[in-house]
Amino acid sequence: MKILVLNAGSSSQKSCLYDMTTTIPPLAPQPLWEGKINWTQDKNQAEITVKTAIGATLQETIVSDSPQVQFAYLLSTLIHGATQVIDDLSVIDVVGHRVVHGGQEYKEAVIITEKVKQAIARLCNLAPAHNPAALAGIEAMEKSLGNIPQVAVFDTGFHSTLPDAAAIYPVPYNFAEKGIRRYGFHGISHQYCANRAAEILGQDLPSLRIITCHLGNGCSLAAIKNGCSIDTTMGFTPLDGLMMGSRSGSIDPGILIYLWQQYNYSSEELDNMLNKLSGLRGISGISSDLRDVIAAKKQGSKRAQLAWDMYVHRLRSGIGAMLASLAGLDVLVFTAGVGEKSAEIRLAACEPWGFLGLKIDLEKNQQQPVDIDIATFDSMVRVLVVETQEDWAIAQQCYKLLQ
């Protein structure tokens, strides 16, 4: 079964092609083909990068603001040129999509119908950086591949097990009845990493109390007990929780009322400020990329130092909150771009938890670890760096659903 996976992010669209045989392999295989569309500052341009399992690569910039044109070009690299891996697009059996917000209705992967598309569209205002991109991908595949089965895998699904005490906000109860509650996000990643952590440690997932730290441009934590999410930092939208690349994370809601009343901020201005002009970018004044902030910090930038200090403070606070929900901790997992690649962040995040018996191996932490335990042998808490495999997790769900 050939499965094409589309993973819509806030600034890019990643795609992978997997060739699944009659059984699901225990470890994530290398995709036959990987493609990526990066949207640059110029909305009329898109950077296309492609690589294949045998090492062929392509990198081009196309001039078009049409998702349909961009996707059509990306798909053409599957069947033409040095990056060709299949003879015809018709051999693709199913397309799987990461959809960030599924609301209360969608807790499991589903075959995409018009009803599902309408639900994804309705939820665009709750995930404005992601759901519209997923919807564009779905519609582009309809036009390019015809009546092929498409599957939606929802980031909110894993967190559907949150208890009401964690999910319901302390506002008038009728808001909860209208669906205003904590949904949580990055669920595909949190679920995959928890399962992978148990595999690496050779233990049963239900026996472990795990905190997974998904730290990328977007950041969230999850507390996982008995294999289920029982707490998480993101909320009704992906804006809640930790300080992120360009998103504020949790702030006093009174600030928004104050800005509206005293400075006449519109809802659009508040949305743009909180989602695109805040976080590391807003505090440092330099970049939403933590690597740039660290570099500026080392060169003496006070605002970059402040951005780092705030990021670490809120990350530690979030881990503390998850720790309280779990009433203990067996495994701390770091994943996604920052979590997987920044030894400095992992060290800073682990530093306060010595009283739990958590000890990080400084040498292992510096060695670009992938899917290994970086705690010392005598640490009471295991500390893992796991390469998140959202695309592979989506492909697995597609395979199971079509079977």
UniProtKB/TrEMBL annotation:
Record keywords, A-Z: ATP-binding, Cytoplasm, Kinase, Magnesium, Metal-binding, Nucleotide-binding, Transferase
Gene Ontology molecular function, alphabetical: kinase activity
Site (Transition state stabilizer): H186, R247
Residues where ATP binds: K14, H214, L215, G216, N217, G218, D289, L290, R291
Cofactor, how bound (note): Mg(2+). Can also accept Mn(2+).
Pathway listed: Metabolic intermediate biosynthesis; acetyl-CoA biosynthesis; acetyl-CoA from acetate: step 1/2
Cofactor(s) required for function per UniProt: Mg(2+); Mn(2+)
Positions contributing to Mg(2+) binding: N7, E390
Similarity section: Belongs to the acetokinase family.
Catalyzed reaction equations: acetate + ATP = acetyl phosphate + ADP
EC number: 2.7.2.1
Positions annotated to bind substrate: R98
Active site residues according to the UniProt entry: D155 (proton donor/acceptor)
Cell compartments where the protein resides: Cytoplasm
Role noted for this protein: Catalyzes the formation of acetyl phosphate from acetate and ATP. Can also catalyze the reverse reaction.
Biological source species: Dolichospermum planctonicum CS-1226
Quaternary organization: Homodimer.
Domain of life: Bacteria
The protein, known as: Acetate kinase
